[in-house]
Amino acid sequence: MEEPQEHNHQDPPKSSTAPLSPSCVKCGGPCSFPPPPTQSQWSEISPPPIYRPIRSPAINLPPNTNSQAIILAPVPQSQKVPTISLPHTFQSPSKKIQSPDDIRRFINSDSSKNFLGFVVALSESIRAHKISDSCHESTTLKNIVSVIESLVHWIEEIPPVQQSSRYGNISYRTWHNRLVENSENLMLQFLPDNLKSSTVEIVPYFTDSFGNSSRIDYGTGHETNFAAWLYCLARMGIIEEVDYQAVVSRVFVKYIELMRKLQSVYNLEPAGSHGVWGLDDYHFLPFIFGSSQLIDHKYMKPKSIHNEDILENFSNEYMYLSCILLIKKVKKGLFAEHSPLLDDISGVPNWKKVNSGLLKMYRAEVLEKVPIMQHFLFGSLIQWYVFFFLVHD
C-alpha cells in the first residue's frame, strides 16, 4: 500500500482568531488550520473573520471581531453623482488617509457616501441584464473601451521575460512605464476641449488602476481606483446615468479582461490578499456586479456555481460565474477548501441577499481598511474634508 504523503499542519498563521479545527482533513491528526465560516455565520453575508494579507501592511488595524456589525449595517443605497460647474479648477490628487481616525472621517464624509452610492448605482444598472444585452453606448464610452483595448494590445508587444521567481515578471514594469508615459494622451482621446485640463487630476487615478510597478502586484485597492476614475468622469458629466449599464457591461468587463491578462502573463502578486478567507485573490467588484446580474434569475441560484455545465455555458454572460470558473481553473483542490467564503455564499437562498451582503462587505472590507485606503487619492473631484475643532480655555 502506498504510504500517505507528509504534509505540514502548521501552514496557516497561528494568530488567526477563527476557531481551530480539531483534526486534519487529510490524515485525521491534530492541526491548526481554521475551519471556514459556518452557514449561520454567513446568514446575511458576514465578513471574513480576520484580514490576513500576504505581507504585513504599512498600518495594521485591529481585527474585526464583531461580524454582526456588518450583518446589521444598512445596505448601501444608490446616489446621484453631482456634476461640477464649469469653469472648474482641477488639482493633482494626493493621499490623505494614514490612520483609523482618517478612515472614520472618510467613511462619514459626503465623498465616501456618494462614491459608494455610485458603485451601488452601477450595480443596479446591470441588474437582470446579461453582458451582451443591448444598451445605450455613447461615442465617449466606445472611445474609453478603445483605450483599454490598446492596453491589452501592449501586453502582446511586451512579452514576459524568463526569470526564476514565480511572481512578478519584470516585463510588467515596461508595460506600466508605457502606461504612465502615454496616459495623458489616452485621456485626450475622449475628453472634450473644455475638460482637457482635467488630466492633471484624473490621470493618477487611471495609472493606479492597473497595479503597482514597484511591487508588481494588484489588488482591490487598484480596482477601487478604477471605480474612482469612472466616478471622476461622472462628476465631470462625461459619464451620465443613461451610460451606467454600458459602463459595467462594456467598460468594466473590458477592464477585467485586461486585468486577468496582466495577472496571467506577468504573474502579478495579489496585493494584500485576504488569503483563504477572501472572495478572490485580486477582485471584489465583479462579484457585486455579477450577483446583481443574477437577481431574480429563473433557473440560476447561488448554489448553481457548483454546476460545471452552468459555469462553462454562461460564464461569458455573467461576471459572477466567470469569476468562479476562473478560480476553479487556477486553484487546485476542493472548492470548499481554497474558497470557503464563496462556497458558503452559495448556500444563501437568493442573489438579492448575496448582492446586498457583498455591498456591505465592500464598504467594511475595502473602503474601511487603512492598508487599502491609505493609497486612495483626493482632489477636487473626490474631496478630502478637513474638520476644525474649537478648543475652549
TrEMBL record:
Coiled-coil regions listed: none
Main location: cytoplasm
Reactions catalysed according to its record: [protein]-peptidylproline (omega=180) = [protein]-peptidylproline (omega=0)
Cellular component, GO annotation: cytoplasm; nucleus; protein phosphatase type 2A complex
Region (Disordered) residue spans: 1-59
Feature: compositional bias, Basic and acidic residues: 1-12
Subcellular location, record wording: Cytoplasm
TM spans (from-to): 372-391
Protein EC: 5.2.1.8
Database matches in SUPFAM superfamilies: PTPA-like
Source domain of life: Eukaryota
GO molecular function: peptidyl-prolyl cis-trans isomerase activity; protein tyrosine phosphatase activator activity
GO biological process, one term: mitotic spindle organization
Keyword Membrane attributed: yes
Keywords: Cytoplasm, Isomerase, Membrane, Rotamase, Transmembrane, Transmembrane helix
Family of the protein in this entry: Belongs to the PTPA-type PPIase family.
PANTHER family noted in UniProt: SERINE/THREONINE-PROTEIN PHOSPHATASE 2A REGULATORY SUBUNIT B, SERINE_THREONINE-PROTEIN PHOSPHATASE 2A ACTIVATOR
Primary role: PPIases accelerate the folding of proteins. It catalyzes the cis-trans isomerization of proline imidic peptide bonds in oligopeptides.
Protein name: Serine/threonine-protein phosphatase 2A activator
Organism: Populus deltoides
